[in-house]
Amino acid sequence: SQQGEEDPQALSIQEGENATMNCSYKTSINNLQWYRQNSGRGLVHLILIRSNEREKHSGRLRVTLDTSKKSSSLLITASRAADTASYFCATDASGGYQKVTFGTGTKLQVIP
Amino acid sequence: DSGVTQTPKHLITATGQRVTLRCSPRSGDLSVYWYQQSLDQGLQFLIQYYNGEERAKGNILERFSAQQFPDLHSELNLSSLELGDSALYFCASTPTTGVGGNTIYFGEGSWLTVV
Question: What is the pLDDT of residue A98?
Fold first, then answer.
């Protein structure tokens, strides 16, 4: 079963708008990461947020983490057509090995 | 370029056959992960190896097996293939196996089509 679930499953916005994706997970985590996947390609790491952090920025990306609600959000500001991709959250559970589990992904379409 | 190399990139084979997918991790990375991604599905974790030893197991079928060799490359063996095994198989690597929140570097995947 998937540890993380992204919401929405699909999102379509106009270029220049902001895109927000959410991720919920089930068990306590050490870290949460967001990845991007262009169609049929490998996943590319975007940003990592640790369990003791609440917010992190990287360029046009802003990630928040609420461990009490077991949720995270990824905000892409001023979206571009090139941001069209699927976005996945990935968590590694507390304790033990780094068994990283991915969510089901949000498919983002940015319309020029 | 992530530094993770997977071969072959595309593979078409018949049901009942066996295939081997190969992965070379990034230079210096000791951990290798295998994931399966079916059409419009999320990534299903299959198995992880660290420095030659199996470290974590996910939803890997008994018909599938993997190993990591002394030179750290890994192979995923898929046997008695079924139509439902058609998917994109990813290999990924990290430097260690600890819980330090390593970035996971993905290869470009091997497309397997079973006909």
Answer: 56
